[in-house]
Design goal:
The protein is α/β, with parallel strands linked by helices. Helix 1 links the parallel strand 2 and strand 3. The chain starts with 20 loop residues before the first strand and ends in a 15-residue tail after the last strand. The protein has a single domain, classed as Glutamate synthase, alpha subunit, C-terminal domain (Pectate Lyase C-like, 3 Solenoid), CATH 2.160.20.60. It contains two helices and twelve strands. A twelve-stranded mixed beta sheet has the order 1-2-3-4-5-6-7-8-9-10-12-11, with helices on both faces.
Amino acid sequence: MGPDQRPKGQGTEEVCGKECMTIQGDRAVVDLGLSKVQPMHFTTLNCIMRMAMRQGCKRIELKGVMGQRYIASTASDEGLYITIRGTPGNDLGAFLNGPTIEVFGNAQDMTGNTMNSGRIIIHGNAWDVTGLAARGGRILVRGDTGYRVGIHMKEFGDTRPTLVVGGTAKDYLGEYMAGGTILVLGLDRTAPVVGRSVGAGMHGGRIFVRGTVAPQQLGPAASLFPLTEGDREEVRELMDDFQRSFSLEVDVDPSQFVKVAPSSSRPFSGYYDKTNI
């Protein structure tokens, strides 16, 4: 690692944040409160995590996380399990490819950005643009989400991203979706389950909402459809996983859900300039 790449406030990669980490067997614990520099810079934290992975750690616990960005971005060990206590910053698990991340707290924006596979479990809220461009894997959120959640999600072949929200979602849910599944449960809700412009510009995928979605809440290119038997099976499977992940018992009947899906695979085809160049 060159000098211009070193974590701020630290020396070489071999010693960055070393005083904060203890390793027993294949388990590493990183206590950010022990850092000589407060708050710990996100580059230092990710440097520590890389060291733990290179030493063969399969379980990494982070304590005292406070807004550090890019945690576990590009991590690709399918057997890796990361526990986070605190509030991770933007781009948690970006480009994730296999590991499981479990957050005991809230998550900031863009959780699971372009993730390919793996699991992200949030025991709190996950805010704007969660699941941005996800290509696979699963994100489970116990609480609420923010704006533009699931934007540009896509699927290919048998690889399909899924996002389950236990609470509510705000405007532009599933905007420009090209594939994947979003399930919004609206548990303990004190506000509408979803906001405005649901599925705006979507041309693939499906959004299941527990409750009602008024026609005026739909975005351009999105329509309401009845659930098929295959849809109901998918809802049941996602619900089972949600309940196991959060140790909950939720009595939810698939008949309580509505489905939002594309009204066309090419929603903007009529808006292109057809002039030959």
